[in-house]
């Protein structure tokens, strides 16, 4: 199945990290070396908005782990129009790695600030891996848990959803109000969309390549026409992805993972809860209007 391809430029050189505000040019894709003709086994998509404080540590940890694996990997950082040094941090890491041949290719995609839903979608559609994982930039779920998701994809499932619920899942340090918000929201998701999942919002999900591109190109809430926004914007795009996956007959597996509360969250409990509620209602309305009918 085809998908829309955005106007992007691929280069083999890192951008100058001393450019104004360390910001990359929107619409541009950079990597430390030309893309291989062979598809990577795994793509890791990381949306980032003003992550200059957390990204250096998390990116180093992720790359260190992935470079020890026997398979090939591409790591795609999608900069959501950050106003800080987020892009510069990635560019410097790319430059440092350019003389060190390894199994892991690091890429940077610069985007206008359109929010997490659009940013994740952009990275997922740019991915080339046989399997594609997206994770929040803080990696509240450690990268080592990717093996749990890959196991089920290799068993024939199309989507493996990291879950903070269930007997084998572990939460560490989460404030009570955050947990309560999550449970209330998930109950609303199940009521409105019929999704039979305990946790739709954990930012750690993996897809078979075909399912990834098919689903993300069909998103309506934060697609190509998504507007630019001000400030951090947390959305319910996960709900639309999982709703479409279920509607299109893909095999989904909810997989218990470990999850660590990381301070400095950009979540605004009131504002983001209202926006996410609007999103799940809009998904249901879109379905009733026939907007998710099969497209060839």
UniProtKB/TrEMBL annotation:
Keywords: Endoplasmic reticulum, Glycosyltransferase, Membrane, Signal-anchor, Transferase, Transmembrane, Transmembrane helix. Pfam families: Glycos_transf_2. Pathway: Protein modification; protein glycosylation. It comes from Candidatus Chlorohelix allophototropha. It comes from the Bacteria. Belongs to the glycosyltransferase 2 family. Residues 9-24 have a biased composition (Polar residues). It is found in: Endoplasmic reticulum membrane. This is dolichyl-phosphate beta-glucosyltransferase.
